[in-house]
Each structure stands twice: as structure tokens, then as C-alpha cells.
Amino acid sequence: MATKAEVLDFIRIYADKMAEHRQELTDLDQAIGDGDHGINMSRGFKAVMEKLPAVENKSIDEILKTVGMTLVSTVGGAAGPLYGTAFMKAGMSTKGKEELSNEDVILAFDEAVGGIQFRGKAVRGEKTILDSMIPAIDAIKASIKEGKTMAVALVEAEKAAWNGVEYTKTIIATKGRASYLGERSIGHQDPGATSTAYAFQAANEVAQK
Ligand code: ADP
Ligand code: MG
Ligand code: MG
């Protein structure tokens, strides 16, 4: 289960993390991309924080859609439209909701991944956001299926996300700017997979409160 207050808390904590890890994400992108991932994410979530007060009393779908639209309109490059689409799709799946059941949360995550895949045409194993996001969501599904609480599921999800981040070091990038490096991308950690792992870290922190 997730309340609206928890959804808002998640967005705020994630925004803080994007500011806090701006340099780290940018350094990772410097190695295999154009060195702007931390700048992009922190700029986007700073804009989200400015928009949030206007929608925080609206339903969860309105909140998520606002986050998505703000990211799409304020962040250039690959990640802005991808994260933006993820939040917009998650929003569309939660229409009119004031709180989310575990099934609603899982559906929202599935829609988010679907949006990223529709837009970016990537699959797991291409050294992208998806390499931490898909395992994290699979972990949530497995935990809930076993009858665990969402709080326990999110502990597992964060672990799976960071394992996914580690896995990106071992594979070749075949999507996005890092793909220009080919084999030389091996050994480097994917910035987008890393920023996604921080999203699951934020969600986990909210769930443990
Ligand atoms: P840009 O590469 O345009 O400068 P960013 O640096 O903000 O954009 O984001 C780079 C990240 O975007 C990569 O580390 C990767 O995780 C992610 N990414 C790139 N292309 C795709 C894609 N097609 N699908 C999913 N994620 C992608
Ligand atoms: Mg970049
Ligand atoms: Mg760029």
C-alpha cells in the first residue's frame, strides 16, 4: 500500500538525492557519455519541486503526471523524456486514486517500464535504466507474491536495483550515447541505471518510516 503522502515523500526524497548525487552521476556520464546526467536529473527534479505545491492536494495520478510532464519539458537528452514518460505512464495507470494498493503500485511500475521501453526501444542487458529498474520491479512482484509487505518488498527491490547497477559494469552499451564506445563501455557503471537505483533507495526509505 502507498498513501498520497508517501508518494509525495518519495518524490521529495528522490529530488534531494538527485541534487546530492549530481556530481557522482555526472562523473559516471563523463566516462561513457557527455557528462550531463547529474545536471539533467538535478535540474529536472528542481523544476519538479517548484511545480509540486500546486498539485499536492490533487489525486496521485495528477501528481505523477505533473512530475512526468515537468521532466519531459525541462530535461533534454535521453533521460528526461525517458523518466518523464515513466512518471506520466505511472500516473495514467492510477487515475483518480487517493491511495495505491500493492497491485496499483505494481501496475504503475509496469506501466513506467512499458513507457521507457516504448520510447527508448531498449531491453534488459543494454546498459540502461532498465538494468536496475526491471530487476527491482521483479523483486517487488516476487516479494508481494510470497505474501511479504510492500516495505519488505522495497528492501528487496533496492538490493536488486544495486545488483543491476553492478551488472551494468560487465556489459556493452548498445543504446544511447554510451553505445558509441562499443566494447570500451565495458567496466563502466551506467549513469541511468544508477539514478534509477536511487529512486528505489528513496522508495525504500519512505517505506521504512
Ligand atoms: P544523454 O545521454 O542524452 O546525455 P543522460 O546523460 O541524461 O542523457 O542519460 C543517459 C542515460 O540514459 C544512460 O546512462 C542510460 O541509462 C539511459 N538511456 C539512454 N538511452 C536509453 C534507452 N534507449 N532506454 C533506456 N535508457 C536509456
Ligand atoms: Mg549525458
Ligand atoms: Mg546530454
Automatic annotation (TrEMBL):
PROSITE patterns: DHAL (PS51480). Homodimer. The dihydroxyacetone kinase complex is composed of a homodimer of DhaM, a homodimer of DhaK and the subunit DhaL. GO terms for cellular component: cytosol. NCBIfam families: dha_L_ycgS. SUPFAM superfamilies: DhaL-like. This is phosphoenolpyruvate--glycerone phosphotransferase. It catalyses: dihydroxyacetone + phosphoenolpyruvate = dihydroxyacetone phosphate + pyruvate. Pathway: Polyol metabolism; glycerol degradation. Keywords: Glycerol metabolism, Kinase, Transferase. SMART domains: Dak2 (SM01120). GO terms for molecular function: glycerone kinase activity; phosphoenolpyruvate-glycerone phosphotransferase activity. The lineage of its organism: Bacteria, Bacillati, Bacillota, Clostridia, Eubacteriales. Its EC number is 2.7.1.121. ADP-binding subunit of the dihydroxyacetone kinase, which is responsible for the phosphoenolpyruvate (PEP)-dependent phosphorylation of dihydroxyacetone. DhaL-ADP is converted to DhaL-ATP via a phosphoryl group transfer from DhaM and transmits it to dihydroxyacetone binds to DhaK. Residues 5-205 form the DhaL domain.
